[in-house]
Design brief:
With about 130 residues, this protein is an all-alpha fold. Helices cover about 80% and strands about 0% of the residues.
Length: about 130
């Protein structure tokens, strides 16, 4: 049986690893959102190839950055995860609709899984809501 000290250390380790896991998709999503705001030719071309008008990039970039920032703030992290899940679901749908490669369809799912795994590891309230049992 674990002592209180061991349990606290395990919880602290989960918290740290959760931050690392969360950082990977957040950095990617912030970079993607920034590219949508800057609108280099490759991003505009990709947007049009998915069937969207090029002027939607500004809105998508602002929504993506806002959701990612909400995810990063501890007080709003669960709301941010929910909103990012919706955003990434739209990305899956857009990629599948145009017949993109399997990787392009699955990549947003992987990002979403990493977001939720990282949040689960660093958020005690979420672990209490969804306990994993041995």
């Amino acid at each position: 049986m674990q002592t209180d000290t061991q349990a606290a250390a395990d919880s602290k380790n989960w918290f740290r690893v959760g931050h690392i896991i969360s950082a990977l998709p957040v950095l990617f999503l912030l970079f993607d959102g920034a590219l949508k705001l800057v609108k280099p030719a490759s991003v505009v071309e990709a947007t049009v190839r998915l069937g969207y008008p090029e002027n939607v990039n500004l809105s998508l970039g602002l929504v993506l950055i806002t959701c990612a920032v909400l995810y990063v703030i501890p007080r709003t992290s669960i709301l941010g995860a929910i909103l990012l899940t919706g955003y990434l679901g739209g990305a899956v749908s857009a990629q599948a609709r145009v017949g993109a490669s399997l990787f392009s369809v699955v990549f947003p799912v992987i990002l979403g899984a990493l977001l939720w795994l990282g949040l689960y590891m660093r958020e005690q309230r979420l672990r209490a809501l969804i306990p994993l049992r041995r």
